[in-house]
Structures are given as C-alpha cells and as structure tokens.
Amino acid sequence: MKKRVVITGGSIVSALGSEWPDILAKLKAGKNCVRRMDDWDKYTRMNTRLAAPVDFIMPDYPRKKTRGLGRIAQLALVSTDRALAHAGINADEPELKNGRCGVAYGSSMGSIDSLMDFYSMLVHNDLSGMSATTYIKAMPQTCAANIGVLFGLTGRLITTNTACTSSSQAIGFAYETIRQGIQDIMFAGGAEELSPADAAVFDTLFAASSKNDTPEKTPAAYDKNRDGLVVGEGAGTLILEEYEHALKRKAQIIAEIVGFGTNTDGTHITQPNRSTMGIAMKLALEDAELDPASIAYVNTHGTATDAGDVAESWATADIFQRPIPVSTLKSYVGHTLGACGVIEAWIAINMMKEKWFCPNLNLEEIDPRCGPLDYITGNGREIDGEYIMSNNFAFGGINTSLIFRKA
User: Which of 107, 115, 352, 360 is most buried by its number of CB atoms within 10 A?
Assistant: First the structure.
C-alpha cells in the first residue's frame, strides 16, 4: 500500500527573504528584487546586467563543519538547518541516523569559484589555487553530500542536477521514496549561487533581459513586450515525512504532496515542447487521482522567455480547458535555476494557506500568442482551494509537475 507523504517543515533563502511574514509583505507590496549589477560592465559582449542576488551572511557555524562548503552549499545548509528546526526535529536526533532518513537535493552545478581554480591549474600549470576542498565545493553533488554529512544522514542520497528542475525533481523523487516505504523522512530541495556565467548562458541564447536601466520592469512573464529572463540565487529545503510517522511524533503538518509527474521532451535541448509539458501535468494529476477541475491555482515556471511562456501557457490551457488562475514568482526573485522549484513550491504552499495568491509583476499587456489563462494581476487574488499545482521545466527537455493539498 502506498504511503501518504506530508510536509512538516520548510525554509528558503531568497531575495525576498526567508521568513514568511516578510515574504508575504513584499509579495503584497509588489517588490521586485532585480538589481543592476554594475560589476558586470567588465564583461564585453554580454548584454544583460541584471540579477536578483541574495543578501546572505553565513551564520557562525563551527569551521570544521563549513570549511568544505562553497557558497551554494552554504545556502543549502542554512535553509536545511532552518527547515529542520521548523519541523521540530533536533539535528542530533538519533532517528536521522538510523538509515530511514535521506536527502534529495539538486543544483545546476557546484560553486563556480572552485571550478575556476581547476581552470587556472590547466591554463597556468599551477596548483597553488587548489586545496583539499576544491573539488568538494565544485562537485555537482556538493549540496546533497554535504547535507548528508553535516546531519549524519545514513539513508538514501539522491542528487538531481537537472538545471531548472533540480529541486522540483528532488521533491518528487523524495516523495516517491517515502511513498514506497523506503524512507520515513527526506530532506528535499535545491540551491544555486549567483554567477555572471549563469547570465551569460542565457545571454548567448538571446534569452536574458537587457532592460538594464529599468530593473524594476523586468522580468515580465507573458507580457507582449517581455525581453527575457533574469537570473537569481537562493536555496530551499522541505522536510518530507511519512504521514503516520508525522502523526506519531505529533508534528505540525503544513501540506501534503499528492501528485508528481516528470518526463522528457526527447526533441530539443533548449526549445520547450508544449505536448510533453502537458503530459507532465497529466502525469501529476493521474498520480494524485484528481480531475483538472480540482486544481485551484497553478504556480507557473514563467521565465519571461519568448518561446517558453508561449509553450507553457498553451500546455497549461490544453490540460485545464479553462482559464485557471496562474502566476509566476520569477517576476519577484528572478530565475533561481536549480533552486526555483523548491523556492516557488514553498511560497505557493504558504500562499495556499494564506488563501491569497500573488500577481504577475510587470504584466501590462498579455501576449496574444500565449494561452487563454487567468493571469493574476493587480493586488493578487483571494482563492480558497484544496489543491494547487507547481510546474518547472529545464534545458534538456525535462518537465516536472507537483500537486500539493492543503493540510
């Protein structure tokens, strides 16, 4: 028999902040966290100068625990530590170390600075910039592995390095692991540190916004005059737990994960596919045994790229066959890449509890090429729904869809 999977804790590190009251206040104020990065002027031939950085100061942890952490793993550690506390679980709890607790965590890559140390060695034939922790900081599994070591986890470790679906896949795979009875608790999420190289990836594809003089006006998902995405950074962790296990320890249940769908396009590395995007949503609905009419709101990927917004909006319209309310959080925190799935899911869950969903910022004129959806604008929308969906899509043609039920 399949187990029920609930969320008993969560925390994020984002440009909007970490505490829900602060995040909610900024969402209601329409706070766009995008800034002009003046230091990026040195990069010739790169058009964008925009990003949504996090004002992050690493807490005073013992150096023995943090010396092998790059910025990306630091963000992951802080969000995980806070999520665990939110779940009411002591970091020294023996149950974390009995083999029934694991971690599923992802990112696009490890810390860029450490990768540069390898580059320097190969170019200058000099190892002086390298240390025993250089690879630990640079390896793609740095977040998952360090979380496992720092909290003494001896259960399953799943690393999901699938670009923009890294953390949504992590949540989905952690959910499946508990549902199958393999684990009782899973730490699930993802992280990404800001790098101009990330912006350059999209800039070379003409997919990055260059409204450098008006950062507050971008990104503008689904808008006729959008000109691309803005990169951000951050991290997030959800504590997933088997339902009976959570009841036994009298945990606070925040929400329940009831559906997960993931697939691949099999057509193109960077061009989105409307049909297979829709199939991912259909798979999530089938997994949850729900009709599309049950979903009250969809938190969209909404990158503000030309092809992405059109394909996603039509895929959503195909599945729901009605103008379902939608909005994207990337107009507030930018595209946090490997962290976007968990950051957006956590905020969407809290909005569901709040019975209020944020508007799409900078959406002034809906692109007529986009699908017929209810694009939330103005002061947001009050919606009292039992189920919501959160979707993410990534390079490689990787699609994910998660469905959450109000506790």
Answer: 107
Q: Report phi then psi at 129, rounded to 5.
A: -85, -5
Tokens of 38: 């003046």
pLDDT at position 120: 86
- pLDDT beneath 50: ranges in the chain: none
Q: How far apart are CA 218 and CA 352, in angstroms?
A: 25
Q: Which of 143, 164, 358, 370 is catalytic?
A: 164
Note the pLDDT tens digit of each residue in 230-241. 999 999 999 999
The reported pLDDT for the residue numbered 129 is: 84
Strand locations in 23-182 (E): 35-36, 50-52, 101-106, 157-159
Give the number of other Cβ atoms within 10 Å of residue 137's Cβ: 24
Q: How far is CA 137 from the centre of its chain?
A: 20
- Give yes or no for a contact between 169 and 341, defined as CB atoms under 8 angstroms apart: yes
| 11 contact partners, CB below 8 Å, separation of at least 6 | 18, 79, 80, 81, 82, 83, 86, 236, 237, 346
- Residues 391 and 260: their CA atoms lie apart, in Å, by 10
- Give the separation between CA 140 and CA 72, rounded to whole angstroms: 10
**How confident is the model at residue 119, as a pLDDT?**
85
Q: What is the pLDDT of residues 95-112, one digit of tens each?
A: 999 999 999 999 999 998
Q: List the domain boundaries for the chain.
A: 5-406
pLDDT reported for residue 105: 98
Tallying the residues shown for the chain, one arrives at: 407
C-alpha closest to that of 187 among 367, 376, 10, 40: 10
Q: Is 335 a catalytic residue?
A: yes
Task: Record the pTM.
Answer: 0.97
Catalytic pick from 33, 143, 301, 340?
301
Catalytic residue from among 245, 335, 340, 358: 335
Contacts of 15 (CB under 8 A, 6+ apart): 33, 52, 53, 54, 55, 232, 233, 234, 332, 333, 334
245 catalytic per annotation: no
DSSP string, 229-249: B-EE-EEEEEEEEEHHHHHHT
The domain made up of 5-406 has a fold known as: Peroxisomal Thiolase; Chain A, domain 1 (3.40.47)
- pLDDT score, position 334: 98
pLDDT of residue 115: 87
Residue 298 contacts residue 328 (beta carbons within 8 Å):
no
